[in-house]
Design goal:
Layout (H helix, E strand, L loop, with lengths): L10 H10 L4 E4 L2 E4 L5 H18 L5 E3 L4 E4 L4 E3 L3 E4 L5 E2 L5 E2 L4 E5 L5 H5 L1 H7 L6 E5 L5 E7 L5 E7 L4 E4 L4 E4 H4 L19
Parallel strand pairs: 4-8, 9-10
Antiparallel strand pairs: 1-2, 3-6, 4-5, 6-9, 7-8, 10-11, 11-12, 13-14
Length: 202
């Protein structure tokens, strides 16, 4: 993503512009960044995952949001739109429009070639500063693979992953389970690449 203007914009100006815009933008340190559109696979995986969460959270006090819910990372000033977010407990939402969440419990990003390094790197650095965030989930759209980073006491994060359509992963922060066969329903995936063999000792 690249900035569409070098002219400084206040948060209030950004929010006013965003509510009238047909495309979404991230905001950081006075600049706005246009977000690219999502592919068919990205949209299907996101919709499948939201459907799974909806079924499992229906009688749960947690609230489930799709990508139109904006998140503000208060400590860094980033405004962004994760693919899926879940907030548990007392939900904190700012603005009169009730469209900016402050305290997600879980965030899900479906990886795209153009944004994967950002989602894994800088964006996750921002997300980790959210005191409310307990779990960060990355879903591949090119292979059957889901990664979950879970916050531990002391602020460390532990990675767990599920690989293959027969696998499932428990998301402990919201007491939900993602079966990969359901997440990738109607998705044609390439054959899983083989990992290289271990080096020989000779």
């Amino acid at each position: 993503m690249s900035a569409i203007s070098k002219q400084y914009m206040t948060e209030a100006e950004y929010l006013a512009l965003e509510r009238d815009s047909e495309i979404k933008h991230e905001y950081y340190h006075g600049e706005i960044f246009a977000m690219s559109g999502a592919s068919r696979k990205h949209n299907l995986i996101t919709a499948n995952t939201i459907g799974i969460f909806h079924n499992q959270l229906r009688k749960n006090p947690c609230e489930l949001y799709a990508s139109d819910m904006r998140i503000r990372v208060s400590s860094t000033g980033l405004y962004t739109y994760p693919d899926i977010s879940v907030a548990c407990g007392e939900v904190e939402i700012i603005s009169d429009e009730l469209d900016t969440l402050l305290n997600p419990t879980l965030i899900v990003e479906v990886l795209s070639p153009s944004t994967e390094s950002y989602d894994r790197g800088t964006k996750f650095q921002h997300y980790r500063t959210l005191d409310s965030l307990q779990e960060y989930v990355l879903i591949s759209q090119d292979s059957a693979r889901i990664e979950s980073f879970t916050r531990q006491p002391g602020g460390t994060w532990v990675l767990r992953e599920a690989v293959g359509l027969e696998a499932a992963i428990d998301l402990t922060s919201i007491q939900c389970t993602l079966a990969l066969a359901d997440v990738y329903e109607k998705i044609t995936l390439p054959d899983e690449p083989m990992l290289p063999p271990p080096p020989s000792n000779g």
